[in-house]
Amino acid sequence: MSKKDRFNALLKDKDQETSKGEVSKNAHLALFGNENISENASESESSKEKNVSTSSESINISELADKLAAANKPKRVKFEDTHTKSTYWIRDDILEAFNKIAGERGEKTRIINQALIDYFHKLEKELS
User: What angle do CA 123, 124, 126 make, to 5 degrees?
Assistant: First the structure.
């Protein structure tokens, strides 16, 4: 009998456990063969089974908690999802001044975006 067959037999016998939670003798035989079975062996197997089921319940609870945490976690929007790279011609004197004032990373993007927003507001006021 293969290990898989013995394990399946154990699972079948687990469904038929007594009300005290003891593992049946058939399950013990399926796993360990024709060994002498004492009441203590049955009790130790029962406690092992309880630990296994507790461990598998912990795994399921842990997996569930991970899924819930991931669902509640706000999704981080990538920069590439909100911005598009584009190439434009800029006068040399403006670019030189621009490079002097833009220091830290992302500053050029912020300046260009704010300049365009201001320009659109100016156009909107002119049209009104």
Answer: 65
